[in-house]
């Protein structure tokens, strides 16, 4: 039986980003921790974030962030890498991400 391919990952264009979707994505503490970690550490692979949720729940959080346009994902082998779309978000909603991240609790690193 052939190996099933994952569906292609779609990222919204900058002009398609809505403030409602971005704020919804950033309103969840787990997603905010993911975004804070990406801001501090740069691109990261799934499974390397300072959150303690089940893999299926983490996948859900990445989907919400990706569909809102907050992150960009790329596949490399069997891993998905995540990158914060900081410059694109800042061009669409100047200062928003900085304000939200400044008001968030600090990201705790897990070992």
UniProtKB/TrEMBL annotation:
Signal peptide range = none
- Record key words, sorted: DNA-binding, Transcription, Transcription regulation
Recorded hits in Pfam families, A to Z, give: HTH_20
Where does the HTH arsR-type domain start and stop, copy by copy? 11-104
Alphabetized GO MF terms: DNA binding; DNA-binding transcription factor activity
In which domain of life is the source organism classified?
A: Bacteria
* CDD domains per the UniProt record, alphabetical: HTH_ARSR
Q: What PANTHER family would the database entry show?
A: TRANSCRIPTIONAL REGULATOR, ARSR FAMILY, TRANSCRIPTIONAL REGULATORY PROTEIN
Name it: Transcriptional regulator, ArsR family
Species, as recorded: Kribbella flavida (strain DSM 17836 / JCM 10339 / NBRC 14399)
């Amino acid at each position: 039986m052939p190996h099933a391919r994952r569906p292609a990952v779609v990222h919204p264009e900058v002009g398609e980003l809505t403030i409602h979707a971005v704020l919804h994505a950033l309103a969840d503490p787990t997603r905010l921790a993911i975004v804070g970690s990406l801001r501090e550490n740069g691109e990261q692979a799934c499974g390397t974030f300072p959150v303690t949720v089940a893999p299926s729940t983490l996948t859900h959080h990445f989907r919400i962030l990706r569909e809102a346009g907050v992150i960009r994902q790329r596949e490399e082998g069997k891993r998905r890498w995540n990158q914060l779309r900081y410059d694109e978000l800042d061009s669409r909603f100047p200062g928003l991400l900085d304000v939200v991240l400044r008001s968030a609790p600090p990201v705790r690193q897990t070992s």
